[in-house]
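yo, Hydrolase is done. seq:
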Amino acid sequence: MSFIKIKHSSIIGVGLLAALSAVFAIYTSTQPVEAIATSDAATRQAETAGVLPAATQTAAKITATQQLMTAPNAVSPIKPGVNAEFDAMMKQRAAAAAKAKAAAAAKAKAKAQAQAVAKAAAQRRQTSTSQPSAVSTATGTSKGTFRVTFYDPAVLGSSMGYGGIAANLSVLPRGSRVKIQLSNGQTLIRVVNDTGGFAAGNPHQIDVAMPNSQIPSAGVLSATVTIL
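structure:
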């Protein structure tokens, strides 16, 4: 009786094992086992060699670039060539910053030069304005220092006499009575009664009427002229 039970249990176990084997065979026959195994092997090989598909490489580079931008010191070490896009971007930024700095320096230099030119021009205007300005004195109004030349009206056929001088009439108006203190120590009192071709280009020059016999040997002197 016992022998019959044991034999019966063995038959059941063998049948169950056969059924499971049949199910497993059906399952495995529907799966691309070789393709899956080949894909997994290729992925592991690519990971080991450091060669990943293009999409994966791009995603990895984007992630690395973002990490470098947000916290450059947190990503270490940086492998050469892995962050080429980031390196190129940083070079472009450095070049742009250098260009902007050079442009600012050139602009500042040009501004400084323009200010220097304007200052020099203002100083020249101030000097030129102050020179011809009249200065009041106790005896009259000084018109400054003049270049003095001499002429004899009689030699020129003029009957104006020797009491006058020719001058730039915008500086010494016609009819002005002036005192001329010559550089040789001589003092003359004359009236402005004429002008000449020299007056336009040399406003601080006067031509004094004087007989040839009395004209100083130097021929040209300087003098302080005061309107009386």
